[in-house]
Amino acid sequence: MTAALVIPLFTAPITRTLPMDYDESTLPTDVIRAAQSGDEGAFNSIMRACKGRLLGMASRYVQSATELDELGQDIFVHIWKGLHTFRFDAPFPNWLSRVAVNTCLTHIKRRRRRWSLFVTPDEPESIERVADHSSEVEASGREAAERLRPALEALKPKDRLIITLLHLEERSVAEIADLTGWSQSNVKVRALRARAKLKELLQNYEDA
Amino acid sequence: MKTPDEDLDNLLRNAAADPRPGSWIRDAARGMEARVLQRLAQPESWAEAIFSLTSWRPLAAAVIAVVIIGAWTGTSVADVFDEDWITLQSPEEPDAGMEDLEF
To answer: How far is A151 from A200, CA to CA, in rounded Å?
Structure first.
């Protein structure tokens, strides 16, 4: 840490490292250690390095940029609060992903509770409005996402999480087991049940 | 004819290609670090603010409130147990203050 500023605040000096640009997979250990000891500048460097990937993960559980912004902030606040528990026994990006997945799960639980109280399932975003001058692939992607949305919202949070990780993020069973802390056989069983439930919900929405 | 499973797989595959999250990510990523640090500087909730060791203001406000209320109610309670004070408290006569009035 060459560039460090010591800012005297009250009586105790707080060391604040200037934020730097790093690649997430090669984040220096001393940056992580500095963030663990409360250095906001080092934490800023960590956020810079991993925000693209973590926001990409979180974007599957939201409906707008504003909601993604809120969820992204929640993820980083949880990372900051839990950073002292990271023991360097696993790759840092994996630990970050686990925190992000847990925060997304909490978010969809909260959202589902709110959604079931105040939102009716027949208010999907207008396909006409979103399908403007984009390519056919993009338009079909939007259309499919909008068709899928009410059914995903109605799924139990853990079922939604597993469908998203397995089919929308295309992760392997082993990766999902690592991210969620569930066993691989548990992941497979849950995935089968979640798929069956999703199919049933889609059928119900299409019949209605 | 496609089976329902193939339909579901196609739907999921197409939904994975939804381009909107890309623009949401770009929008949300802009200035994210500053917003997070700003949020970290503030207490999360009332409960956290009251019990937070890093925020002394709510605790100081609570202590001041307890001191003021304690001092106020404390003197009133002390008066109640003070016999001299009680004997001085005679009930007012019904016509008290009426003698100066002219009809």
So the answer is: 9
Q: A68-106: string of b/e by CB count within 10 Å (b at 16+)?
A: bbbbbbbbbeebbeebeebeeeeebeebbbbbbbbbbbe
Which residues of B lie closer than 8 Å to A, measured between beta carbons?
Answer: 4-5, 8-21, 23-25, 27-29, 32-33, 35-37, 39-40, 44
Put simply, whether the predicted model's pTM sits higher than 0.90 gets the answer: no
DSSP string, B63-97: HHHHHHHHHHHHHHHHHHT-HHHHHH-PPPPTTTT
Contact between chains at A144 and B39 (C-beta distance less than 8 A): no
Examine the pLDDT at A139 and tell me if it is beyond 90.
no
Q: Look at A141 and B28 and tell me if their CB atoms are within 8 Å.
A: no
